[in-house]
Amino acid sequence: MEKFETKCLIIGGGVAGIAIARSLSKEFKDIYLIEKNNSLGLETSSRNSEVIHAGIYYQPNSLKSKLCLRGKNLLYEYLSKNNISFNKCGKLIVSSNESEAESLDKIKNNAFECGIDDLSFDTQIIKQYPFLKSHTSLFSPSTGIFDSGSFISSLEREFEKNGGTILFGNKCMSVEKEDSFFNIHVIDLNNNIEFIIQTKTLINAAGISSVEIANSILEEKKYQVDYIKGDYYNYKGKEKLEHLIYPLPGKDSLGIHATIDLGKGIRFGPSAYKVESEDYSINSDKKEDFYNSVISYWPKLKREDLLPDYSGIRAKIKNFDDFEIKINNIDDKIIVNILGYISPGLTSSLALGEYIQSAVKDF
Ligand SMILES: Cc1cc2nc3c(=O)[nH]c(=O)nc-3n(C[C@H](O)[C@H](O)[C@H](O)COP(=O)(O)OP(=O)(O)OC[C@H]3O[C@@H](n4cnc5c(N)ncnc54)[C@H](O)[C@@H]3O)c2cc1C
Question: Is the pTM for the entire model greater than 0.85?
């Protein structure tokens, strides 16, 4: 079987893989990225809410909190500099009764501990939306939306300009540890030819498959993962929004929110329920639960105004709430596993690139 050697190989061309690739390519030449699809960002990175999160809900000092805050600032700067569309529209978190209103206080305090000091209780913006039910609302001015597809394409162009190479339609089948290299067995799906890439630095950014790949390489810790699917529905009614509307967060998600896209269309989602397989079809059996959740803050919503759109899957590490960025040095070889990289992964991506760049440099 044919073999070739590279200094660094990245598995997976979602936002995590390409953001890391772009950062590393500023310093290292000879970096390869393999992606099983024929373009970047076709999986979780295009099956989400496209929200730039402020960093409100996370455990203070957690990796999620730190990367989200830093990532948000880097992202707004990057989008402005590269003329990529975004709208720093802000979001309202609405409570529907007295006891939920107390939770808003806790959310505001948590955000403050995370370093977000711009949240305020709102009494004015909510008046624009008489069709919403809100007891009290909290406003986050630094939350926004953006064109994540153009963002990913821009990172791709930078990576290639810096000398990086992307092999599209190339899938990692297995990883083998040799004394001085990782041997990555790859199949080129364009012609079914198998070959081996040898590298001393391996980055596993394979999205919902990254746990499986990590478990096949790491000896000490076998990760378990829950797959939590979320459906989205478009709204075809006549109301308009200028802000994002969020209910209180739930256990596995931030709640089924109403987001606007850059053309001001309204979309609801994502829901959150466990699945066992990678199936992105919209589950119509779950529509009633979805509807019941949204009417807690949008009581006059009609079922027929919800049109199935798309879904995404969160690969959440069991009993663990943070991003798990696991960096191991095995006999002079480096492996970085990007695990549990769920929301706010889009927002955090440029900070993730920076983080991996400095971590790899230290080895
Ligand atoms: C429902 C939902 C809503 C979300 N909303 C937001 C939001 O509003 N804001 C935000 O900041 N974040 C949000 N997120 C999180 C964000 O979307 C993810 O953190 C991010 O997209 C994950 O990127 P990734 O590169 O890790 O994964 P992916 O985008 O899935 O990329 C992994 C890539 O690896 C490739 N791959 C897999 N296996 C192999 C293999 N064996 N060989 C080669 N290639 C392989 C895949 O084809 C894929 O392209 C949301 C996530 C979900 C699920």
Answer: yes
* Best residue among 253, 346, 347 to mutate for probing ligand 1, ranked by most atoms within 8 Å of CB: 346
CATH topology of domain 3-47+149-224+321-361: FAD/NAD(P)-binding domain (3.50.50)
Ligand 1, atom 14, residue with closest C-alpha: 343
Quote the pLDDT of residue 219.
81
Contact between 23 and 356 (Cβ < 8 Å): yes
Spacing of C-alpha 252 from chain mean position: 14
CA distance 191 to 235: 42
User: Residues 46-84: pLDDT tens digits?
Assistant: 999 999 999 999 999 999 999 999 999 999 999 999 999
Cα of 312 vs centre of ligand 1, distance in Å, is 9
Could you say which DSSP state residue 49 is in? -
Query: How much is the pLDDT for 256?
Result: 95
Residue 221 pLDDT > 80: no
Residue 45 CA: which ligand 1 atom is closest? 21
pLDDT of residue 150: 98
**Region for 229 from its dihedrals, namely left if φ exceeds 0, alpha if ψ lies in -120 to 50, beta otherwise:** beta
Q: Could you give the residue ranges of the DSSP H alpha helices within the chain?
A: 15-24, 63-81, 98-114, 148-161, 210-217, 287-294, 345-361
pLDDT for 97 equals: 86
Whether ligand 1 lies within 6 angstroms of the CB of 144 is answered as no
Instruction: For domain 91-141+225-317, say whether CATH 3.30.200.20 is its number.
Output: no
Tell me what the pLDDT averaged over the chain comes to.
Answer: 95
